[in-house]
Amino acid sequence: MDVADIKLAVRQHIAAATKALHHPDLDDEAVHGARKDLKRARSGLRLLRPLDEAAYRRENARLRDAGRWLSGVRDDKVLLGMLEGLLEKEKKPERRRLIERLMARLEKERQRDWRAVRAAKRRRELREALGESAQRVEAWRAPHEGAAVPTAALRRLYRKGRKALERSRKEPSDEQLHEARKQAKHLRHVVEILAEGKPSKRARKVIKRANAVGDFLGEDHDLAVVESRFEHLSSAPARPKHKLERRIEKRRARLQKKALKKARKLYSVPPKRILQAAA
Question: If DSSP states are collapsed to H, E and C, what string results for 228-276?
């Protein structure tokens, strides 16, 4: 896959995100789809990064900010779903009241976030910014050795992901685990882009492992947010709050163990073989 093909893939993902935002009845499904396409576009930008570092940073920041603007309503929904799961399993009245209290607060935040996302002026500004980003990416010039650009970019991404894994094993903080998750998701997306929709058996294995790492650490991240929300509930009874936090910590420990095990397998495959699998 050459530079022109990667540029096309990036523009297609930006176009898909823009189309979702054009929908008059913007809903959870459209927002989720737009965010996924923006993430894939950012992964594609990483394959183009060797062409122009300054341009990469500018367009990556533009797409990152667009995704963050959409993230509130999606995160609210995910957190509410997690709290509903906790509520279904919880029998103690005082803990149930605590969960319900946090759910009520999240419902209000979700309504506020939806108002911001559906504002006509803001949606128009976002679509214009995405259109400009797509045009800028198309204008990037490829050097004569353009065929080597994706190879160099994938090797760099692989190194960053492996380092993020090692840091997570030594210091499993929320920040380190979140970084490991992001790098695994980018690796998955770039392999999908390079495979051009027809991944080989080896490529499918890489994608599956990277997806598992992202899913496990994604749930861990969401639980960390829920835990933090419980910690900041004012005037909440200490004992039931601590009980819920301990339950969340146990679940997070299991998720982190599964994620790091999958991540070791993911990065046991050398980048050269990943490139061969994706070709």
Answer: HHHHCCCCCCHHHHHHHHHHHHHHHHHHHHHHHHHHHHHCCCCHHHHHH
Give how many domains the chain has, as a whole number.
Answer: 2
98 close to 244: Cβ distance less than 8 angstroms: yes
Residue 190 and residue 135 in one domain: no
Consecutive 10-residue averages of pLDDT for the chain (279 residues): 86 92 83 92 91 89 90 88 88 88 91 87 87 88 62 86 91 92 92 82 89 94 88 72 86 94 89 73
Residue 144, phi then psi, degrees to nearest 5: -60, -35
Q: What is the distance between the alpha carbons of residues 13 and 19, in angstroms, rounded to a whole number?
A: 10
Structure tokens at 268: 């046991």
User: Rounded to an integer, what distance in angstroms lies between the CA atom of residue 215 and that of residue 226?
Assistant: 17
Instruction: Residue 7: give its domain's CATH number.
Output: 1.20.120
Which residues have C-beta within 8 Å of that of residue 16, sequence separation ≥ 6? 33, 34, 37
What's the whole-model pTM score?
A: 0.84
Q: How many helices (DSSP H) and strands (DSSP E) are in the chain?
A: 10, 0
- Cα–Cα nearest to 18, from 123, 135, 115: 123
The Cα–Cα gap between 262 and 264 comes to 5
Expressed as residue numbers, the domain containing 181 is 144-279
Judgement on whether residues 194 and 260 belong to the same structural domain of the protein: yes
